[in-house]
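Hi all, posting the design record for the shared folder.

TITLE: backbone redesign
STEP: 1 of 1
STRUCTURE INPUT:
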């Protein structure tokens, strides 16, 4: 074909631009606006007019509870803990004295009525047979006294590797001496001014010892009646006591032995009832 005969190129119709996402959203919003009537008023919000009365009521309840608890006293007043401990110790000592008096009164009445009461007489004889093992009678004999005391130095003066805990006597130190003396044949024992038995609990809080409701500060004195030589050998052979002696040499803890040719122990006046165990029948 010649150039004059070539057909003209087809004319393309103008295509519309594709709709975008925003356009679709605008159309949907317009349709929703036409379909749903506009709200007549906004949803009411929580205002301070309601919050303030609730807060004030809660504060009033808290103030009332605080007043009821305090009863006019300062709830944050500092407590004199040492004074409270001493007062409690004094009350326990007073009660123990009353208990001793009542026990003596019961014993006297029992002896008075025993001859005329066969059942009471049998119970009295059984109690007399168990008196020595139960430590309910006085006992006298030669004794060995062990004294444990805190080191007379400050924590700042300790060698490297030692702490403040190493210069005070702990519960395990007292218990180690007590166990060693019982194991080596002690017949009777006292810690400080109290008679103790095999079930007496030795507890320490900080550098104070609590024994049968009484509180003691160091030095701690453990005295045992028995064969003195045997008890000394028992202390020398006990592993826990030897560990304590190592700290005696290292940081200056107190450890001393003293013998008594004759000493009397009072009767044990504490409870003999088992709370967490029962005897085997």
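Okay, here is what came back for every position:
SEQUENCE:
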């Amino acid at each position: 074909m010649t150039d004059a005969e070539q057909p003209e190129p087809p004319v393309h119709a103008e295509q519309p631009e594709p709709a975008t996402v925003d356009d679709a959203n605008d159309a949907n919003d317009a349709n929703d606006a036409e379909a749903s009537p506009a709200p007549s008023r906004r949803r009411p919000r929580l205002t301070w007019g309601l919050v303030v009365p609730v807060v004030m009521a809660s504060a009033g309840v808290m103030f009332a509870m605080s007043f009821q608890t305090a009863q006019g006293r300062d709830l944050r007043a500092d407590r004199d803990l040492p004074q409270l401990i001493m007062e409690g110790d004094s009350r326990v000592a007073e009660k123990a004295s009353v208990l001793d008096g009542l026990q003596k009164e019961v014993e006297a009445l029992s002896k008075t009525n025993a001859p005329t009461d066969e059942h009471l007489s049998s119970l009295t004889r059984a109690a007399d047979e168990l008196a020595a093992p139960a430590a309910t009678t006085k006992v006298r004999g030669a004794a060995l006294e062990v004294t444990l005391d805190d080191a007379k130095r400050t924590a700042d003066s300790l060698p490297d590797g030692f702490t403040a805990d190493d210069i005070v006597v702990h519960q395990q130190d007292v218990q180690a001496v007590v166990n060693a003396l019982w194991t080596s044949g002690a017949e009777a024992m006292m810690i400080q001014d109290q008679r103790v038995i095999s079930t007496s609990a030795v507890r320490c809080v900080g550098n104070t010892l609590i024994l049968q409701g009484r509180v003691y500060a160091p030095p701690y004195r453990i005295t045992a009646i028995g064969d003195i030589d045997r008890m000394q050998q028992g202390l020398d052979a006990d592993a826990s006591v030897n560990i304590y002696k190592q700290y005696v040499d290292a940081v200056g803890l107190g450890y001393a032995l003293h013998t008594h040719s004759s000493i009397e122990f009072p009767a044990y006046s504490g409870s003999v009832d088992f709370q967490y165990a029962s005897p085997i029948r």
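COMMENT: The first strand starts at residue 139 and ends at 149.
Let me know if anyone wants the other runs.
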